[in-house]
Write a structure and sequence with these properties.
172 residues, alpha+beta, four-stranded antiparallel sheet, four-stranded mixed sheet, 29% helix
Length: 172
């Protein structure tokens, strides 16, 4: 994954919705016994091509979610969405998780599992076929899904890279 096509987004003019993907109770063993805290992974998006994910850890659930939302707002990226679906098929992997996303016809809906569904709905994709292989760890699935979305290229960016007009991209 090259960092040249990652488009950072400012949060000031966006109306973001947050989705809680996973919350886990984690334990730190100390000399005095076990200390419990919570780890939350959160996805935020404006349902119009902008998405970000974040991780928050705190001793209370609400604090962990709030920290996750703040972290997610710092990592927003722009994704190309065409008529409620994606421009082309894409695969990506992060650690042990491997994902595959394919464009779908209007009316299909979001065919995806829990962590992938949260990311795809936050981006604003309404028709997509998705499959996850390997690890079902929510953290790795979210990161693999965002990696796949970042590798997507629309016709305009393809034409720009090749140095040709958009008409020639489709007509050869």
């Amino acid at each position: 994954m090259s960092n040249s096509n990652i488009k950072k987004v400012r949060t000031s003019d966006l109306e973001l919705k947050d989705r809680l993907v996973s919350i886990q109770r984690v334990t730190k063993v100390t000399k005095g016994g076990r200390t419990f805290s919570f780890s939350a992974i959160v996805v935020v998006g404006n349902e119009n091509g902008v998405v970000g994910y974040g991780l928050g850890k705190a001793s209370e659930v609400t604090s962990a979610i709030a920290k996750g939302v703040e972290d997610a707002k710092k990592n927003l990226v722009k994704i190309p969405v065409l008529k409620g679906t994606i421009p082309h098929k894409q695969e990506a992997r992060y650690s042990g998780s491997q994902v595959m996303i394919r464009p779908a016809a209007p009316g299909t809906g979001v065919i995806a599992g829990g962590a992938m569904r949260a990311v795809l709905e936050s981006v604003g994709i309404h028709n997509v076929l998705a499959k996850s292989k390997g690890s079902s760890n929510p953290h790795n699935l979210v990161k693999a899904t965002v990696a796949a979305l970042l590798e997507l290229r629309d016709a305009y960016s393809v034409a720009q890279v090749r140095g040709i007009s958009i008409d020639k991209v489709f007509n050869g």
